[in-house]
Amino acid sequence: MSSLAERQPRELREMIHNNEFILPTAGMAKGYVQGNLAIVPKALAYDFLLFAQRNPKPCPILDVTDVGSPEPKRVAPGADLRFEIPKYRVYQNGVLTAEVTDIAAYWRDDLVAFLLGCSFTFESALLNAGLPVRHIEQNCNVPMYLTDIDCVPAGAFHGRMVVSMRPMPASQVVRAVQITSRFPAVHGAPVHIGDPAVIGIRDIMKPDFGDSVTIHPGETPVFWACGVTPQAVAMTVKPEIMITHSPGHMFICDIRDEELAAL
Amino acid sequence: MSSLAERQPRELREMIHNNEFILPTAGMAKGYVQGNLAIVPKALAYDFLLFAQRNPKPCPILDVTDVGSPEPKRVAPGADLRFEIPKYRVYQNGVLTAEVTDIAAYWRDDLVAFLLGCSFTFESALLNAGLPVRHIEQNCNVPMYLTDIDCVPAGAFHGRMVVSMRPMPASQVVRAVQITSRFPAVHGAPVHIGDPAVIGIRDIMKPDFGDSVTIHPGETPVFWACGVTPQAVAMTVKPEIMITHSPGHMFICDIRDEELAAL
User: Fold this and answer.
1) A74/B152 Cβ within 8 A
2) Are A143 and A243 in the same domain?
3) Are B49 and A45 within 8 A, CB to CB?
4) Is residue A68 within 8 Å of A60, Cβ to Cβ?
5) DSSP type of residue A209
6) Domain co-membership, B54 together with B160
């Protein structure tokens, strides 16, 4: 993997296009932004865009393609979202019907692709500052929880926020807030610090998605809005068709993490 | 006006609803956010929302109403955008056809209202920090210029950015950047500092909109993206109907300026 960490986004996307590897993209193209994918028909795109606009913490938009175009012009001009993600999931009427390495067969003139910020960017910033990221230390998936925090509804879309959790030593909690506040385009500052029950989480050791991680004595759980939220919410309306990346298999953008920093 | 400065937003909106005054709202409800209004039919709303999302500096969205609803639920729950702005402009097929104190006669079930951040919020922050705001000192309108900076197009909408200019003493330019960077929801950091020619402005003393202001020796012109941009861009497609506030006659929100601060 270390060689993939040093590759440029464009090279990696070409390798992915050619199916030279089908792997989760964590750690690839160090310093560059990776994005979550959600493709919906134009008929749903307004509600989806408005939902994201009203809920910027769980749904930070990096790019929206023109109707029928698979090119994310702002974050990777020239790229083709039909081929340059290692693995996709296709949902039809809310049911997962295929997991594929390209979506050429599913593409239509009325589809709109959304790229949403992912936590890799702020996790890099936390690690660069010497703060722990437990699920990376433990080599597992980040723990994610369904909360009782209602998202602001938009048209057909409504639902509760999903959050991810990273334990921080008490002395580093403030620093974690400061560091992630610089990155509003990738979930930004935490949504909650401390007692999980306050946001409707019953058992911190039993995440709804991902894996549980160790919380050491003296550590405080810190919760960030999670990019799983928009996909989960969109799925509740059972769109005729919706295509996402497979978990962990993200789109690698040409923009750098630091370009997303607000300051 | 000083008594209006101390009034609560809700009281002022009720007075406006009852036509107790028809005045520009600058200085009213001190500390509270004021917003620009743009109402378009649902058929144009997706492109308008996407244009705003792609151009957040000139088009910072504060709220978007549900289709057919005149209530800006997030910034002023219970308010009615048909009555609670002192003066409106109605454009039909790109032509100004009416200036009215309420828009009940024009309201339709397919209209969507956008409230966009305005510069009053960051100007308060500049003044609070002791920085000059020349057009307020000179009691005139802010100078605005059409630049050669292309906005990112979205569907039917494309055009160039309009900027406003405030001269700053050279020693205060950095501070002006810092202060306004805290407020990305109301145009945020400047888009340009210094030589007007770099962004296509020929004569700084001849603004395209508003009034010219004095630039003292040793002062640097500082340019911010301006909320006139989205209205100007939307007008180029000559929507069947589009309704805006009359210049300076803004919507007074229930949220405070400081609630919009990113940090």
Assistant:
1) yes
2) no
3) no
4) no
5) B
6) no
Grade residue B49 by pLDDT with cuts at 50, 70 and 90.
very high
Same domain, B20 and B81: yes
Is B192 found in the same domain as B151? yes
Which of B40, B42, B53 has the highest number of chain A CBs within 10 A, making it the mutation to test binding with A?
B53
Q: Are A139 and A214 members of one domain?
A: yes
The model's pLDDT over A52-92, given as tens digits with 9 standing for 90+, comes to 999 999 999 999 999 999 999 999 999 999 999 999 999 99
> What is the per-residue pLDDT for A3?
85
Question: Are A53 and B53 a contacting pair at CB < 8 A?
Answer: yes
Considering its fold, how many domains does chain B have in total? 2
Q: How far is the C-alpha of B112 from the C-alpha of B68, rounded, in Å? A: 6
Residue with tokens 């464009």: A10
pLDDT of residue A2: 54
Of B46, B67, B262, the CB nearest to A49: B46
Residue type at position B215? I
Q: What is the pLDDT of residue A128?
A: 93
**H/E segment holding residue A21:** none
Please answer yes or no on whether B262 and A181 come within 8 Å at the CB atom.
Answer: yes
| Chosen from B47, B54, B182, B263 to mutate, greatest number of chain A CBs within 10 A | B263
**What residue type is assigned to position B119 of the chain?**
S
Q: For residue B105, what pLDDT band results from cuts at 50, 70 and 90?
A: very high
Whether residues B134 and B112 fall in one domain: no
Residues making up chain A, counted from first to last: 263
Nearest CA in chain A to B114: A50
One domain for residues B199 and B253: no
B60 closest CA partner among B34, B86, B79:
B34
Domain with residue B210: its CATH number is 3.30.2040.10
- Contacts A54 to B, Cβ<8 Å: 64, 74
What's the pLDDT score for residue A59?
A: 95
pLDDT tens-digit series, residues B179-209: 999 998 899 999 999 999 999 999 999 999 9
Q: Which CATH number do you get for residue B111?
A: 3.40.1640.10
> In 3D, which of B13, B31, B32 has the Cα closest to residue B83?
B13
| Domain region containing A6 | 2-118+235-260
Interface residue ranges in chain B relative to chain A, Cβ cutoff 8 Å? 42, 45-46, 49-50, 53-54, 61, 64, 66-67, 74, 152, 155, 181, 184, 262-263
pLDDT digits (tens, 9 = 90+) for A180-217: 999 988 999 999 999 999 999 999 999 999 999 999 99
Mutate to test the interface with B, among A40, A44, A47, A53 (most CBs of B within 10 A): A53
Packing angle of the helix pair A173-181, A120-128 (nearest 10 deg) = 130
Between A and B, how many residue pairs show a Cβ–Cβ distance under 8 A? 39
Do B149 and B253 belong to one domain? Answer: no
**Residue A171 in contact with residue A184, Cβ under 8 Å?**
no
Report the Cα A158 to chain-centroid distance in Å.
18
Sign, CA torsion A143/A146/A151/A157: positive
